[in-house]
């Protein structure tokens, strides 16, 4: 049983959104809902609440006090157990946050943030992409519409009339004109009319509509005047209408009409003053062909023959799929695994953290991927596990040092508690390790992705000493997982007193990589490829010097972000005509597969993923013999293609030689990197 706490402000439009979302949950899971009314004590408290919730550390002691401070008649029983908080509307947002924090459960908020930090919610639902963490963007709110089989014979136009607003300044005579023009159009086109007003429609307008109804009963088959008799007929009208005319100020009526999959014309007055959010909503539905916007004066010009696009997937289903992971977290019986990494900006270690999460999820475990920063370069829409960001800015608290680490750790601990108790915590990269070090968890592992010894050797003495002190603090008496065997030797040399060290190679999905490698590209020249981020240890200087020394004029393809330093390095060597920069690619595999050769010029690595991915795709590799990784990957005959570091001449010679050879890559040499094999090693180590 999924228990949902629905916080409501008693506004019909807001309630219909929340209930529509919960209705979607019920289609898949047995759900019980408890409603709590949220009434703010005074408007001025909203700004105070926003400031306090953005900056205050919420505790079991202060949450009940804050609830009473902000809300009237709040008699919520804090001892009740729930699995999810849902609410819509600004007045509900503060109570949503407070209840979620007190109960340590996920929360979903369907409205604009109005200054609140997005990280206060597990997910926000919006019809506009605000590019904020954990946002679910849908074309329409998740309103539930129950459309039945058509009962009325003949062709019908349903007219849904609202009222004047700040956005749409309908005059009374324009409402009357809407009805008159619709009657004339219906007569001309052979349609009947179903008409209803709403609570916002002026009474004097309804009186004039009533007169028109009496004069045109053959055309207007049904006329419901809300202020005279508030019957709920919208669903009946939508079920029986072929065409819908809806005044454009009502987002809920427009949404219901679109979800009914009928031809929709939104009717607007001459005078409008749309706010940004609503303007974008109308532009979106008209540009996508869900509706056509028409002036009141132009109704008679409507042909009723325009092409429309009907919605393929309902918003409640989109939301359900997005939050499936936090719901199933309650029901699945396997292990709960938290994976923490700095961000998903695109480096090898970040990609591996993503692959870890996919691997565990595919094996039936509950997985949550936590990011310190809201930087995501990958398309994550199809991943069936939650990706939770701790902050909305890069390095937000990093400048505070150890205090910043504690702030991150408190945020991480709160977010983890929302999902329950995790059995295993896996951390990737030193910045994430600094935060995970603060967690009091009995089963945490630190994945070491590079040779710290090689890194320290490149630093000046003072910096190297400071870094070594950090690494000894982070990993003393901790479980470490190294991605290459040589890294354990490095730790021993550096006198880092780890608790237990195990080497587990990075996992790779061979099938997915090869499928993506088969995609077409639009390059009509031969090339060697260097798909590495522009970082000091990648030694772009060595790579470019080697290209300049090549005997062939083959091009070098770089998959890294363009920057002025890289551009100048290319220009200064006169290689503008031979080096092409494509930037970061969501799918680098299609370029790697078509390459004649993949080249790596690094002076330090961990277990370079691009070498393994290249071999999976059958593309030969020439690499510097740097610590660590390349020598562990390029074994047997492939070890011939390892080159001394910082030697462009030797690198160029090996590239020229490789381009003239047929280098065969056998699956036997890379089988140890397959995700299924790697999963068994993780299972043996930390999932028992």
Distance between the termini: 28 Å
Q: What would CATH call the architecture of the largest domain?
A: 3-Layer(aba) Sandwich
Low-confidence sequence ranges = none
For the biggest sheet, the summary is: 7 strands, parallel
Count the domains: 4
The portion of residues assigned to helices is 25-40%
Mean pLDDT: 90
Q: Strand sequence of the main sheet, in spatial order?
A: 15-14-13-16-17-18-19
The H-level CATH homologous superfamily of the largest domain, spelled out, is Glycogen Phosphorylase B
What is the CATH C level class of the largest domain, in words?
Alpha Beta
Number of helices: 24
Q: What coarse outline follows from CA principal-axis ratios?
A: globular
Here the CATH topology of the largest domain equals Rossmann fold
Radius of gyration, in Å, reads 31 Å
Structural class: alpha/beta
- Give the tally of β-strands: 25
Strand proportion, as a percent range, falls in 15-25%
Task: Describe, in plain words, how this protein is organized in 3D.
α16 links the parallel β18 and β19. It is globular and about 95 Å long. The chain is an alpha/beta fold and 688 residues long. The strands form 4 sheets. Strands 15-14-13-16-17-18-19 form a 7-stranded parallel sheet, with helices on both faces. Helices cover 39% and strands 16% of the residues. It has 24 helices and 25 strands. The model has no long low-confidence stretch (mean pLDDT 90). It folds into 4 domains: 2-137, Rossmann fold; 156-301, Glycogen Phosphorylase B (Rossmann fold, 3-Layer(aba) Sandwich), CATH 3.40.50; 333-503, Rossmann fold (3-Layer(aba) Sandwich), CATH 3.40.50.2000; 510-673, 3-Layer(aba) Sandwich (Rossmann fold).
